[in-house]
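Q: Can someone sanity-check these two? First one:
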Amino acid sequence: MQEHISVMLKEVLEMLAPQDERIYFDGTFGGGGYTKAILEATNCRVIASDRDSVVIPTANKFKEIYKDRFDFSHSKFSDVRTILSRFNVEKIDGAVLDLGVSNFQLSNAERGFSFREDGPLSMEMGLCEESAFDVIRNASEQSLANIIYELGEERFSRRIAKNIKKNLSKIHGTKDLADVIHSCVPRTGKTDSATKTFQALRIFVNKELEELRMVLHELINLLNPQGKIIVVSFHSLEDRIVKLFFKEMALSEDKEKFQLITKKPLVPSDEEILFNPKSRSAKLRGLYMIK
C-alpha cells in the first residue's frame, strides 16, 4: 500500500496550535498524519473518523500506542455528533479535515478512482449507497450531463453523457469509461480529457459536497470557546463552500463569536509541491471561535 502524505501538515499544526488536556476531532484519519502530529505535539486527546475501512488497521495501531488519548470510528465525518457521543464527548477544541482523495484510494486500481490503471468503476470511499457504474447505468442522459457539468465543471458534459449512454454496453471498467470520453473530447494541454468526468462521478458517488456542508454546520455547534475548524480542500467547489461558510460565520449577527484565522487561504510551499505534487491544488482555511 502506498504511503499517504499529509498535505500542509506543518501549517495545519501551527494553525490548530493544540494544547494539553484539550480534545480534537480528525474527521479524515487516513494514514493518521494529522492525528499523530497533534498527539505528539501535546498531551491532548484525538477522536478520529474515516469512512474508508482500509484505515482501520492503522487506527488499531494508534489505539495501542496512544491508549485513552485516541479513539476511532469507522464513520462519515458528517456523523460527528454521534461519533463524539459514542466516546462521551459533548464539545471539542478543534477539528481538522483533509478533503483530498488519499493515496490509499488512488494507488489501488480496484477502487476505481483513477483511469491510469484499469479497474472496476467503483470510486467509493466507503459507506456509499451506489458505485460510479450504478450512476452511469441508472441516471438519465440529462441527469448524467448535469452531474458532469456541475461537479466536474466540464463544458463538454452533454457530449460526454450522450457518448457514455450510447456506449454503455462497452463500459465495464475505468479504462473503458476513459476511452469513451477520449473518443468524443480531444485532449488539450496537460490535463487528460477524462479527468473532470471522473472527478464529478467521484464527488457524486460519495456525496462529498453534501457531507462537507453537513459537517461544517455540525462542527460550528460543537466547538468550545477558542476552538478552531481547519479545512484543507483541493478543488474550487469544496473551497467555495468552506470560504462562504467561514465568511458567513465571521460576518453573522453573532460576528463577535467567530473570526477568520486568515483572510486568504494558505497554499503549499514550493518545497512541498516539489516533494508531493498532489498538494499543488491544496488550500488551507481556518475559523476561530472567540467565545
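And here is the second, same format, sequence then C-alpha cells:
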Amino acid sequence: MKPTPLKRQSLATQVRERIEGHIRAGDWQLGARIPAETELARQFEVSHNTLREALQGLIHAGMLSARPGDGTYVTATDRLHAAFDHHLEQSELAKILQARLAIEKSIAGIAAQNCSEDDIKRLEAALQACKNREGEGIDADMAFHCMIADCTRNPILSEIYRVIAAYLCRHWTPVLHQRQYEPQAIALHDELLDALREHNPAAAEKVVERLVEFGYQSI
C-alpha cells in the first residue's frame, strides 16, 4: 500500500497557526479583542478571504468568538482549553465540583512539595491582593489559586485549573463573592499558604477540602 502524499499547508492554515501562537504566547490575553481584520491581513500579508478562513477555523475550534459590530475576542488559550471549557458547559454542576476538588487537592499537594521561596513571596502578595479586595468579583481569589497551580511546575495542571477557574468566574461570581471575604474563608486561605510555606502536602490537601466545602455551601 502506497503512502498518501502529504499536502502542503494552505496559507489559511499557516495564518491560523500563527494566530494560535500569539494567543499561547500571551500577546493576546484571554478575553481580549484581537486586532481588526484589516490590520491582521496587513500584518500577515494575506488577503482578507485567507484571513477570514483562518479566523473561522479558530472560531469553530472555540478559541475565538466574533461579536458583530464589535470585534473578535479570545475565548480560550488553546484547543485543549476550548474543548475542556465546552465540556464543562455541558456537565452537571455536581460533577464539576467533584472534579475541581480532586484536581485542586492534587495541585495543593504537589505545589507544597515544589514551591520555592520566590513562589511563596508571590503567593503572599496575591493573597494580600485578595484580602484588599483588588480586582472584580472572585478574580483575585482565583488568581491566588491559579498561582498555586503554577507552583506544581506542571503546565497541564495549570491549564486545566485555569479553565475551571474561568468557568467559576463566569457562572458563580455572585454567589462565591459573598463568601470569599468572610473571616472563615480568609483564615482558611492563610492556613493553605502556611501549609505551602512548610512544604506539607497532607496539610495543604486537607485545607483545600475545607476551603472548597466552605465555598460551595451557598451553591
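A (reply): Looked at the second one. The chain has a mean pLDDT of 86. The chain has two domains: 11-77, 91-218.
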